[in-house]
Amino acid sequence: MKISTKGRYALRMMIDLAEHQNEGVVALKDIASRQGISKKYLEQIVPLLNKSGVLRTTRGYQGGYMLAKSPDSYTVGDVLRITEGSLAPVSCLDDEVNLCDRADSCITLSVWQGLYGVITEYLDSITLQDIIDNGKSLAADEYYI
C-alpha cells in the first residue's frame, strides 16, 4: 500500500489546523505557506474534507478553515480513508462482504486480512493530537550549544 500525495498533504493540512486551532479560522494560503504545499493543490483536497464533515468553513474576506472537532477526535486512519478510500492492501477486502469468487478457497486471504488488521489498528490508534504532542517532545529534546 502506498499513500498518495493527496493523503499525505491532507494529513499535513489537518495537523496544521490542529496546531493553529486557537487562532480561529485559518486561511488556506497560510497553511500552504507553512507546509510548503501549493494552495491550488490544497484547494483540491478541501472539498473531500468538507464533504466528510471534518472541517468548518467560513467564506469571505476573513474566511478560512478550522477543525470541526478537537484534534484528539481525528485519527490518521480517518484522514486517509477520506482521501485514499479503502486502506485495504488488496481489492478483495475493499467491501464489507468479500465478493471475490476465490474467497472460500484462497489460502492467502488470511495474510491480507492480518495485514489489513495491523494497518487499520495502527492508523486508527494515532490522533492528530498524538502527532502534535510527539512533535513537541522531539523539539524539546533538541538543544544547541
Question: Care to describe what's here?
Answer:
This protein is mostly helical. α1 crosses α2. The protein contains 6 helices and 2 strands, in the order αααββααα. It is elongated, with a radius of gyration of 18 Å. It has a two-stranded antiparallel sheet.
Q: Structural class, judged by helices and strands? A: mainly alpha
Main beta-sheet strand count, sense and barrel state: 2 strands, antiparallel
Low-pLDDT segments, ≥5 res? none
Radius of gyration: 18 Å
Instruction: Tell me the overall shape.
Output: elongated
Mean pLDDT: 91
Share of helical residues: 40-55%
* Ends apart, CA distance between termini: 42 Å
Q: How much of the polypeptide forms β-strand, as a percent range?
A: 5-15%
Number of helices: 6
Order of secondary-structure elements: HHHEEHHH
Number of strands: 2
Strands of the largest sheet, in order across it? 1-2
